[in-house]
Amino acid sequence: GTTSHAQHYGYRTDALAAGTHAFRLRQIDTDGTAQLSEVVSVTLGLASRTTLMPPTPHPARGTTTLQFGLRGGGPATLHLYNVVGQHVATLYDGILPAETLQTVRLDTQKLTTGVYFVRLVGDRDIQTRRLVIVR
Fold first, then answer.
1. DSSP code of 14?
2. Is the bond preceding residue 59 a cis peptide, omega within 30 degrees?
3. How far apart are CA 78 and CA 73, in angstroms?
4. For 106-129, what is the mean pLDDT?
5. How far apart are CA 7 and CA 123, in angstroms?
6. Element (DSSP H or E) covering residue 106
7. pLDDT-based confidence at residue 67 (cuts at 50, 70, 90)
8. Distances in Å between the alpha carbon of 98 and those of 32, 45, 102?
């Protein structure tokens, strides 16, 4: 290396989902050789009491994935509504474990093209996300 003193590095990423993420540092020396550091694991909890991630992919065609969770865990329901507020489907109704994201895949083939709303109802909070379905 170019120094005999210990170095400390920091790195910022885009927002990451709750869970465990692994990182490595790639060091390239002045002579062009490269080395990888040991793996460093970071475990992230949920940022808010109720988390409903944006649907992916969005707009949806075929299948879309929804991720949601409650920081403290507990009963939760995930509903799908059309643009005029009519209940279309219940996507999840159960108990969520604390600090984890639940994943639901939605098959959009039976739904018409348009705007929908996904609503997560937790113990004390409600979150809503817009979902656009295209053909």
1. S
2. yes
3. 14
4. 91
5. 45
6. strand 102-107
7. very high
8. 46, 9, 10
Nearest to 44 by CA among 10, 13, 66, 65: 13
The Cα-based distances of 43 to 17, 74, 124 in angstroms read 10, 21, 25
End-to-end CA distance of the chain, in Å? Answer: 55
Contact predicate 88/44, CB 8 Å: no
pTM of structure: 0.67
> Tokens at residue 54, please?
């944006």
pLDDT at 48: 64
Whether the predicted pLDDT of 80 surpasses 90 = yes
* DSSP-derived pairing of the beta strands 63-70 and 102-107: antiparallel
Which token pair is 9? 């590095």
Q: Is 92 exposed, middle or buried (0-12, 13-18, 19+ CB in 10 A)?
A: middle
Q: What is the DSSP string of 59-85?
A: SBSSEEEEEEEETT-EEEEEEEEETTS
Tell the residue number behind the tokens 């940022």, with chain if given. 47
Non-local CB neighbours of 65 within 8 Å, separated by 6+ positions:
55, 56, 103, 104, 105, 106
| Res. 18: pLDDT tops 80 | no
